Amino acid sequence: MEQNREEEIKDEYYQVERITKHKIVRGKKYYLIKWVGYHDRDNTWEPVENLANVTYMIEEYENKRKLLGDNSDMRSGKMKKRDRKDRTKIYDEGDSSAYAESKEQDHLDFTPSGAELSSTRIGLMDSESKKEGSFDKDQPEKIMGVVRQINCKEWLMKVKWKKDPKTLKRPKTSTYTNTELKQRCPNLLFDFYESNVISSI
């Protein structure tokens, strides 16, 4: 019975809702992760290598920090011993509606209250387009990660787009199935798979 429980824990997958903080411990960066379906008290500190499938969330978090001029890093010599809720298998950040809600909340969390944004910061905000990217008009730059699994062979994946050379604005990220990405940008899909292969050898 104990072995069945261990196998059940080993096979559990956890969904990242958002990244809330970061810190550096002995020169290694950790992110505080809010998990889908779990209370804030269940948040855990995870090293970057445990977050391979949600690198786009790390990029978004770091970009927001830069936008707000936050260059501080929490530094600590020790970390708490991790319990059985150590979430080492991560495949996405949850369903797209929960993700959209968390992004809206993240935007509010990172908006400086009453502070004037410098022209540099306003320039950064203006470089983002309000329209979502599509294969009809835009060129894909990178597959950022898996948003959610549809079935055993199909996933919904987030695509980052190249800046428009005329307007110098980048379209918003959008989601496509891996089947469609296999047809439209197989090299980017291969690069994504290759960068996320974890060997047990």
TrEMBL record:
Keywords: Nucleus. CDD domains: CD_CSD (cd00024), CSD (cd00034). GO terms for cellular component: heterochromatin; nucleus. The keyword Nucleus applies. Its main location: nucleus. SMART domains: CHROMO. The keyword Cell cycle does not apply. It is found in: Nucleus. InterPro entries: Chromo-like_dom_sf, Chromo/chromo_shadow_dom, Chromo_dom_subgr, Chromo_domain, Chromo_shadow_dom, Chromodomain_CS, Heterochromatin_chromo-domain. Residues 14-73 form the Chromo domain. Signal peptide: none annotated. This is Chromo domain-containing protein. The lineage of its organism: Eukaryota, Sar, Alveolata, Ciliophora, Intramacronucleata.
